[in-house]
Amino acid sequence: MREQALFDKIDLHLIRVLHTVLTERSVSRAALRLGMYQPAVSASLKRLRELAGDPLLVRSGSGMVPTDAGLRMIDPSASILRAAEMLFSEARGFEPQTSTHTFRVAASDYLDPLFLPRLLTGVKSNAPHCGFEIHPLSAHADYSAQLADGQLDIVIGNWLKPPPDLHIGELFTDEVVCLVSREHPAVRRGWSAEDWLESEHIAPTPTFPGARGVIDDHLDSLGLARNITARCPHFGLIPRMVAASLLVLTTGRQFCERFTDHLPVTVLPCPIPFPALAYYQLWHERSHTSAAGKWLRERAKAVAASLKKE
Prior knowledge:
It is a single chain. 43% of the residues lie in helices and 21% in strands. It is of the alpha/beta class. The radius of gyration is 24 Å and the shape is elongated.
């Protein structure tokens, strides 16, 4: 009887607050993610502490960490939320005009700079009550695990060898070219492979020590290395750095050509041949048959197709 009385005091909203507070490790961040006022989250956390007989989240230095009991609750609470989402959303199907589903997308900023804005606009215009969250691909993110436990719906980026344990959908391929300032000497006199290798290159900051992107992986396979003298973690800022220097950015044509009309930069062929860059969306078996997941993936395919035509 005691267990039944305890169960009667727990509702799905309380489970959502529990999981969000424990994963965010912050009442204020949890409130933002849940769209609630902070006092309401604090009140729910107080109820949870009383039900658990444990503080669940305690202060550690300048932040907060889950207790042992709190850590043990993260996976079960995530499972309950996933089951509830599937129970109701799949029974109804996905109705964009009325759904309140939140889509979560992790993406590389090497993408065409118009891709994510158009994807968000397309989702919000067709599913006005749905949320949309964009997450970066970082060294600390285990996106395979995040796809598996429902923290992400899709991951978008480019890989030489996409992970074999995930579903893969190709979005577009892109030619590898170079973006340089209009004042770069190669604009006037051209360049050889040796000239290109010896030029000063700018590249994204590695996601972890020793990591290489697809450009440097290919060069390494040829026994070559370029002269990287600058790195930046924010790919979208690099074209402005190129415009004001003699740095060379080597990446996809579709990305580069978005900047030639409003920055003093130009696109040059790369004197070393590269295989085309292939951009994919990845998703987990968990959401493979989800109506909402299928709808989002179709939106991503449609945006990619529209950009290729421009």
